[in-house]
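[Q] Does anyone have a clean structure-token version of this?
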Amino acid sequence: MLACCSVAQGLRLCLALLVVIPCVFFAPVRSLSLMARRWAPACGSPEGVPAEMRGLWVVRDSLTSPQSIRQVVETARKYHFNALFVQVRGRGDAYYHSPYEPRAEALAGQPPDFDPLRQVIEEAHAHGIAVHAWLNTYLTWSGHRRPASARHLWNAHRDWFACDRRGRCTAVPSARTEGAFLQPSHPGVQEHLFQVFTHVALNYDVDGIHFDYVRYAGADYDYSNAALTRFRAYLLPRLSPQMVAQLDRRRGKDRLAYVHAFPGEWAVWRRQQVTDLVARISAAVRAAKPQVQISAAVFADADDARVARGQEWERWLREGIVDAVALMAYDSRTERVVAQTRRAVQAAGDRGLVFTGIGAWRLQAHDVARKIERVRAAGAAGVNLFSYNRVHARPAYLSTLRRGVFASRAVAPRSRRLPPLPVSSALSAGERPAEGGDAAVPGMP
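[A] Here you go.
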């Protein structure tokens, strides 16, 4: 028995050296501790450890101090979450160092070198927890007062903002809008958001880029004069001179003349503005950092999302524009959440992942646990809870999940467009095993 153990130990040592020695000489590691963190199994999941997203959406007011960030990471580690979706662009501002947007006003009391996103990344990665940069896309300001910074888009580019059917633009939240949304069709908006998103992806060691509010405020938007002019220009090559002259005459009394004449084309054009931006950012990020996962928080009712909000996320999944969607399936009715999950899984096919977002703030822990069990059976690749801010101060709530549906740790699923990695490539791929707590397992690539 002792001889057999010695032989087995020797074989394990040789295998370990085969992995470590090439990495020591060839991998661009910054330190031995970093190298140790980045070992990963061949297929992104060690034997016996499930691959499942266990994400927490972290709203920006939990990123305003080093202490609050440490609490976020510790909560995720303690209760077996493996990914943090941290809101670093809330209302056209930055909870990180940005050359494109003003520093968030909530950080005014912190020293200039305090970078919430960088701290989250460093501390979460030390525990094998993935970090997705959550950026609100078109929603850019809300409230009665103006932003403090002259650089803010609401101050600097008011003409970039969407208007309703009557040409009104406001940042005051109402039943129809959460605030001021940018015009998806505006070239300046498209370029600005492209720079904002890609800057984060290329300058921070994030595991994912997460779109939110990547839609219109609702069916009443965007009917700004600029958007209507661009739609007219889109149609002109398809129309006869006589039709153009007729519609231009109508515009004198009906500013929506072209929309009323071509509602189907308007709907397609309107959706395409959003899709084009997501596709452009996704392609650029993947070209530079293939391992970064591209995801979007989306309305769980796919029909409402597509028709009213111009958010055709089922197409994004089918065409591989995004790697994953996080359904905002906040309904208290479990059967509805399951049905929405099944439809999304069907749309994703073998190309994308579906994370069911659960409205933990409005549910009891046992109800959340039941929904997690049901969406697992429906084919979801995991769950996101909304939100950390509403549950972190309720240890009994989180302990219920840890004792039950999150009893063991899990590795977040790898994007399906990426091939499985051999063990010898794990260091450079950036997969991170957890440190401390239960068994060390890798986080998201």
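[Q] Thanks! Anything notable?
[A] The chain has a mean pLDDT of 87.
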